[in-house]
Amino acid sequence: MAIVEVSDLRKTYGKKRAVDGISFRIEECEIFGILGPNGAGKTTTVECVEGLRRPDGGSVRVAGYDPVTDRESVTRVLGAQLQESELQPRITVREALELYAACYPAPADWRALADRLGLTDTLRTRFAKLSGGQKQRLSIALALVGRPDVVVLDELTTGLDPRARRDTWQLIQEIRDSGVTVLLVTHFMEEAQRLCDRIALIDKGRITALDTPSGLIGRTAGSTEVSFTPSAPIEARLLSELPSVASVAYKDGRIVVNGTDETVHAVLSLLAGRGISAHHLRVTEATLDDAYLDLTGQDA
Ligand SMILES: Nc1ncnc2c1ncn2[C@@H]1O[C@H](COP(=O)(O)OP(=O)(O)OP(=O)(O)O)[C@@H](O)[C@H]1O
Fold it and tell me: Which keywords appear in this protein's UniProt record, sorted alphabetically (predicted)?
């Protein structure tokens, strides 16, 4: 069942069309990613979902509620990660957790939450003294303290080192496994590829593609490359005629065939049928990076 429904969402700032007819549905317990270049309209979209911005057109529903007119109901079911600057530097982790817990009628046990997020040792530490990773974990704890059904995480791992980023990924998976739907805005392809069940690629206020990570990768031309040195000569024509082959090239004595997963099987069967061995065989899969470039025509 869809817990978030966005339909033909539109938002303009002056003459700038930040969001220009975006529609998507997020199923319960999904990790749904929003990906796109700077200024694409990602934050505006999630701010409309959070009820922080009033759309100019279209509709948004979170668990059936309108985030603008049913603000209070949405606050109960949706948790949003806070930006660093929104906490006072002198507030301690414990004070922040207690303060936020006090805002909800039936909050989660903040001590258990702190424990789950590895914050127990930092309860007396002031916000300004926390590391980037600890601040991020606190922002997740504050987003979860109201026991939300949906949590919005906007560029959560920006500025974290690779280790802290991986720990955060683990945490996001645990949050989903505990029954919370996650809406994730990210610039990191690897993050989106590993975590998201589905991804909406947004560019210039519109969705350019919406699919699973492997579905997006599968749309990339020549998404799989198989290369090898044949033990005996083989005509390029035989390879090009194989199903789903996009291109055949020779590079430094190696044959490089681009296509899909199916191409790999077809090439190996053709070689086996002719008694030719494929030396130094290498198969390379496209990544979400390649798909992003292919679908948006620009770097992440
Ligand atoms: N308050 C505002 N007033 C005027 N223009 C705005 C405002 N907020 C955003 N914009 C513009 O709307 C467009 C979309 O911005 P938005 O922040 O939604 O994009 P984004 O995809 O989240 O970008 P980024 O990846 O840089 O955070 C941009 O051109 C931005 O300059």
Answer: Antibiotic resistance, ATP-binding, Nucleotide-binding, Transport
